[in-house]
Amino acid sequence: MSTDSGELDVDGGANPEAGTPAANAKWRKWHTRRRNVVITGISGRLGTLLARRLHRDAHVIGLDRRPIDVLPRDIEFHQVDLRRRKAEDLFRRNRIDALVHLNIMHDPRRSTEEHHNFNIVGTQKMLDLCQQHGVGKVVVLSSANVYGPSPTNTQFMTEEAPLMGGTHFEAIRDLIAVDMACSSYFWRHPEIETVILRPSHIIGCVNNAPSNYLRLDPVPTLLGFDPMVQLIHVEDVISAIMLSLRPGVRGVYNLSGPPAVPLSEIVARMGKQTRPLPEPLVRPFFKFLFRTRLTSFPTAEFDYIKFVCMVDDARARQHLGYAHQHDLDAILAAL
């Protein structure tokens, strides 16, 4: 598959971290019938974009407990909680070839218990179903945020860097737990081609912390800090997921977009002004705003505009054939 066409190449593209011969053989039979691919979290912006690209090449089955208004007619949608019996019945009734797991809750307003139950229990349920029903490919969207911002970080972290994102940010701990569970699954089930993607800050028509932060005007910054920042366009993330569905691809991959630039340059390119504020005043002020629902930007996110958290995506570019298609101006225009 090329990053331009978004088509699945069923016969080529095996990477150096290829799966077992049995897994590869299963994948190379895809061309004999129309493939069934489950997308969890299809009601979200990422899930919808992926479904619209993927449905031309596969039969897409979308799962989400949230409703969705518009999807192509040939996409099968089920409004269901992943932890419920109804989700398991779908795996029994259909021969599922691949699972793309996007259904991770990122809502710092929800309780820790609710986050844990939905994210970790839901993910483990999906992984168990894939193992029980012979699913050949599992793609999980994690985040480069699992590495965490820190003054001691190396310039660009590889996939082997420790996952320290939850040290000061409780909401990231579930994401780290999900990432680690999928990494363990990768080793316990070599017959299943498991791919974990860790993109840098995703920007576009999505409702996430980086996009919401850059939509502020003026943009608050911390006095004395101007970290280098990596951004990636949402469509480039979709392209990386499509590439991950190729036969023979497995492993953990960082993803980034154009070269990193200082935060101040990003704000300047948007034609906005920064508002540098002293950190001792910023955190309690934004904590009050967040608690009173006057902002959706949690205070723990300020570490990401204070310290660097950048990744090396050479492995994805070499093994997946990934190449970003959107430069910085295109990314910012998508906000």
SSE layout and pairing:
Elements: H1 21-27, E1 36-40, H2 45-54, E2 59-64, E3 76-79, H3 85-93, E4 98-101, H4 112-132, E5 137-141, H5 170-188, E6 193-199, E7 201-203, H6 209-214, E8 219-222, E9 228-229, E10 231-233, H7 234-244, E11 251-255, E12 261-262, H8 263-269, E13 274-277, H9 279-291, H10 314-320, H11 328-333
Helix pairs in contact: 2-7, 4-5
Key descriptive features of the protein:
335 residues; alpha/beta; Rossmann fold; seven-stranded parallel sheet; two-stranded parallel ribbon; 13 strands; 35% helix; globular; disordered N terminus
| Low-confidence blocks of residues | 1-19
Indicate the CATH topology of the domain at 21-204 and 231-257 and 310-327: Rossmann fold
| Element string (H = helix, E = strand) | HEHEEHEHEHEEHEEEHEEHEHHH
In the CATH hierarchy, the architecture of the domain at 21-204 and 231-257 and 310-327 is 3-Layer(aba) Sandwich
* CATH-defined superfamily of the domain at 21-204 and 231-257 and 310-327: NAD(P)-binding Rossmann-like Domain
Number of helices: 11
* Main sheet attributes: strand count, strand direction, barrel closure: 7 strands, parallel
How much of the polypeptide forms β-strand, as a percent range? Answer: 15-25%
Rg, Å, rounded: 20 Å
Widest sheet: strand ordering: 3-2-1-4-5-6-11
Shape descriptor: globular
> Which assembly state applies to the chains in this document?
single chain
